[in-house]
Amino acid sequence: MPDRAASTDVVELILDDHRRMEELFRRMRSVEAERAEALREFADLLVAHALAEEHEVYPALKRFRDVDNDEVDHGVHEHEDGNKALLALLAVDEVGGEDWDEKLEELVEAVTHHTDEEERTILNGARENVPMERREELGAAFTESRAKHLKADCGHIDNVRRLVHP
How many CA atoms lie within 13 A of 109 on its CB side? Predict the structure, then answer.
């Protein structure tokens, strides 16, 4: 198995983020974890990840003939759904309360639906049709964009509100 931690392939970088999101979901569900801290990390990661995909990755993938443009466009709409569900959870007053659990499961459903579809369609299309050199270039652009958004506290509730209600 290749060393994914050192990979610059945009497909592997996106998959790594998806696995981190799954881990953060487990932490947010656990009464033994620091759930609010996990949510802060998750919010930053989700927003930075989606913005980097939309600005750097999706437009480039649409240029490849055999990558499904409708799936790429659908991915953007699913990011919007994820942001709405994230905003609803960020607005919950009591971490671990009944409302928290309900809003968390809505977020989990929205994000896992998107990551599953993206992995099966967009990322497999990229694996099959985008040369590795281009995937590595996209990986570098994705990483830079994602880091810029993370540094800007992009998952803060005020920013998520602006994304949901422009």
Answer: 9
Angstrom distance (rounded) from CA 117 to CA 144: 25
**Close Cβ partners of 54 (under 8 Å, ≥ 6 residues apart):** 76, 79
Taking 80 as the threshold, does the pLDDT of residue 149 lie above it? yes
Say yes or no to pLDDT of 3 above 60. no
pLDDT value of residue 166 = 86
Give per-residue burial for 39-78: e unless 16+ CB within 10 Å, then b. bbbbbbbbbbbbbbbebbbbebbeebeebbeebbebbeeb
* Distance separating alpha carbons of residues 155 and 162, to the nearest angstrom: 11
pLDDT at 66: 65
